[in-house]
Structure to design on (89 residues):
């Protein structure tokens, strides 16, 4: 396998990871930011106030986006398995 082919596979893997994890991480970031603004405004500094909503949002998004995430990862893995015979030559 040439170095450029390996780098392209690595690039594809990293982009797939970013695309799959991006929506959940972005939602958690926004919820955390909103909770932090509310905590600063009300001066209530309780850790569970920020943790529980982020956990609920992450769980909900995993349930809603789970089939799409699994399909995307499965398509990438299937492409890698189909690529194996061409790597030897």
């Amino acid at each position: 396998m040439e170095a450029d082919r390996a780098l392209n596979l690595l690039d594809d893997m990293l982009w797939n990871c970013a695309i799959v994890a991006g929506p959940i991480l972005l939602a958690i970031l926004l919820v955390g930011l909103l909770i932090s603004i509310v905590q600063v405004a009300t001066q209530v500094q309780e850790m569970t106030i920020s943790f529980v909503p982020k956990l609920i949002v992450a769980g909900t998004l995993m349930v809603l986006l789970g089939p799409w995430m699994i399909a995307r990862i499965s398509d990438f893995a299937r492409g890698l398995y189909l690529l194996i015979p061409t790597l030897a030559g």
